[in-house]
Structures are given as structure tokens and as C-alpha cells.
Amino acid sequence: MSLRLGRPLGLVLAGSLLFPIAFAAAQGSDGRSAAGKGVVINKKEIASTATFIPYKAGGFDMEVIAVRASDGSIRTALNTCQVCYRSGRGYYKQVGDVFVCQNCGSRFRVDQVELIKGGCNPIPILEGEKSDLGDSILIPKAFLESAAPYFAVWKKRA
Question: What is the reported pTM?
Fold first, then answer.
């Protein structure tokens, strides 16, 4: 089985993105990096206040947003704006139940994360780009590496 990522980079991943559940036990010291396999998100740790998970790929510092929407689902996105990422300040801070782009000031509701593609909002990490492992979610290294260019001029959040 192969999946085509819905990204401008057009990377095609061969093979299954489903990794063994035991893999979640291989987490790194921050509890979220899974021994070079990507990012593992413990579902119990995610709340309506976003968790910003750092990751390094392709030599670039990145962040993944994980947040619990009002319907109880966990939504994930890259912490960079689909429009403003080239500015270096196209990242989000949470203010109440909205995310605010630090470049243009656009506001984006928590419940919209992962549901809306395009425009000034965080780049969604969709179902085919991550795996549900029961108690956790795996965002594979290959996907994160394919998205690294969006963070080429990204300035770390202050």
C-alpha cells in the first residue's frame, strides 16, 4: 500500500505508515520523539490548550500542534501558516479558543484545526499522514521530513 501526501512537496511514501504499537514505548527523552521514527503524541496529555511539540527535520526546527477540539477529537497541524510560512513569523500562538498567526494576525478557531486546508491557517496533518495507535498518535518521520521546507526560515516561537 502506498499513500500520496496532500502537500505541495508531493512526496510519495511507499509502504505502510502503520507502525507497531510497541513502537510507542521507544520514545525519546522528551516523551514525544520516538527514537528517530517521528513524533508520538499521548492522547491523554492533549487538552483544549494546545501542546506545541518541537521536532528537528532536514536541519530545520519545526513544531507540531496537538489540541483537543470541542467534540473531543484530537487535531494535529504543523505550526506554520500555509500563506505566511515564508515570512519566518508564520506560526501560531493560542489565545483562548483561537490560534493567531504571528505574521498577519489571522485568527483560526481550535475546532477548525485539521479540517481546513489552504489560506492563512496551520498546515493540517491529515488521517493518511499519521497513525492512530490507540492510546497515542504517530506522525511518521517521513512525513515530517517532507514538510521541513515549510520551516526553512521559521523563527522559533518566543
Answer: 0.76
